[in-house]
Amino acid sequence: MAETLLALDDVRAGYGESVVLDGISLELAEGGSLAVLGRNGVGKTTLLLTIMGFTRVVSGSMRWRGRDIGRVAPHRRARLGIGWVAQEREIFASLTVEENLTVAARAGRWDVPAVYRLFPRLAERRRNMGSHLSGGEQQMLAIARALTTNPALLLLDEPLEGLAPIIVEELAEAIGRMMAEEGTAVVLVEQHTDVALSLARDAVVIERGAIALRGSSRTMMADQSSLDRLIGLNLTAADDRGR
Ligand SMILES: Nc1ncnc2c1ncn2[C@@H]1O[C@H](COP(=O)(O)OP(=O)(O)OP(=O)(O)O)[C@@H](O)[C@H]1O
Ligand SMILES: [Mg+2]
Ligand 1 centre from 43 Cα, in Å? Predict the structure, then answer.
């Protein structure tokens, strides 16, 4: 069995007086993968922000490789090996692709050639400014940039959101190859339920700040009635309508 990388125990957290996460417990092994599913506004981003240390934790505990990180500041969590790709795809618009990839790089398997192998489009655009990339390329760059910090855990917040179906396919395929490389654990927040379940080993569905369903992705995929009740089956179609 792989060692536990991250463990949340009954975490309640939110912003100021408002508590969004209402008792979240989960475990992720070294190199493991977890899909986080759920409708809009249920607390998926808040869960990632809590793992990064950006929310107010009211109660519960969070452990990283056995160590309590509840009071560790976000920049120190990043240094411990927690990488994060925000839902807003933050890249440096006035730097080139290659500059974006070297600005925060740390030694490890994910160096610039390795991320270019993962995303050949970025190699072709290495001298383009961040601002001159398509939405899909910006997302690739945001993921690639996070990878060059060589995190032990990568948090991806809806990487496929708002992208054309053909780009969704290309990006999902690259994320799958990235996850298949051992060593980087991934928490994947997605509204493309089918894609997320095909990529991640385990999955949770969040509803109103709590985990309403959990299990292996395979089991969850077979439980269409629960997925329908908790998320609705037509998510990809809803996405395409530009929610
Ligand atoms: N900075 C904030 N301050 C106060 N409340 C917030 C803040 N950010 C989010 N919330 C609230 O927390 C709840 C959960 O939001 P969150 O962004 O985590 O949902 P989500 O599942 O990521 O939704 P989406 O699928 O739309 O990205 C919502 O009710 C939202 O209004
Ligand atoms: Mg969100």
Answer: 6
